[in-house]
Prior knowledge:
The structure holds two protein chains of two kinds. Chain A is an all-beta fold. In chain A, 0% of the residues lie in helices and 51% in strands. Chain A has strands at residues 4-7, 10-13, 19-25, 31-38, 42-51, 54-57, 65-66, 76-78, 87-94, 102-103, 107-111. In chain A, strands 2, 4, 5, 6, 9, 10 and 11 form a seven-stranded mixed β-sheet that branches. A four-stranded antiparallel β-sheet of chain A has the order 1-3-8-7, with no helix packed on it. The mean pLDDT of chain A is 95. Chain B is 0% helix and 58% strand. Chain B has strands at residues 4-6, 11-14, 19-25, 30-38, 45-51, 54-58, 61-66, 71-76, 85-93, 100-101, 105-110. Chain B is globular, with a radius of gyration of 13 Å. Chains A and B meet through strand 5 and strand 10 of A and strand 4 and strand 5 of B.
Amino acid sequence: EAQVTQNPRYLITVTGKKLTVTCSQNMNHEYMSWYRQDPGLGLRQIYYSMNVEVTDKGDVPEGYKVSRKEKRNFPLILESPSPNQTSLYFCASSLTKDQPQHFGDGTRLSIL
Amino acid sequence: QKEVEQDPGPLSVPEGAIVSLNCTYSNSAFQYFMWYRQYSRKGPELLMYTYSSGNKEDGRFTAQVDKSSKYISLFIRDSQPSDSATYLCAMRSTNAGKSTFGDGTTLTVKP
């Protein structure tokens, strides 16, 4: 089954404790991206990747890092999480940047 | 001002009603237009994908794009309780690396 898989689905942690949210897709997609979804602010893009080793900032990249060492994986790293990063995070992928994206089921992060 | 504005809702209709969901935008470079449906605790799933102006129909769903007015719509005919969800519009310009999303409209279809 074609899918985008995120882990963990839920995480409660504390300020400053580094965390990684993993994202994996099994569709051989070139394009992958991370979004955060907040009430009243909608979906905002954090980072995206056009292909392996090619990443770029989206609208709200501050406080986040990403890497794309393999085509299927695109982890989101919070080196020193803060409470304002409490949000619902989505990973998405598409065959190319011109195609509509397939989304994972989300990761709900709470930073205390 | 946001690049994409979406009617905030929430919207509540009886089963069988015709639903109209709308977005306006300010960036005239947008060429690709999408509608996603998002159920609670799930990621957005693509419903409709259109390029430039015109209409596209898929079953009970019709997407309409009016580039001259910078206005897009999604119509749902014969709405069902299973259509209850949040609907997100999204759009992108050619060669852009990202899509811009509306905030979403929450729809409830009552049996």
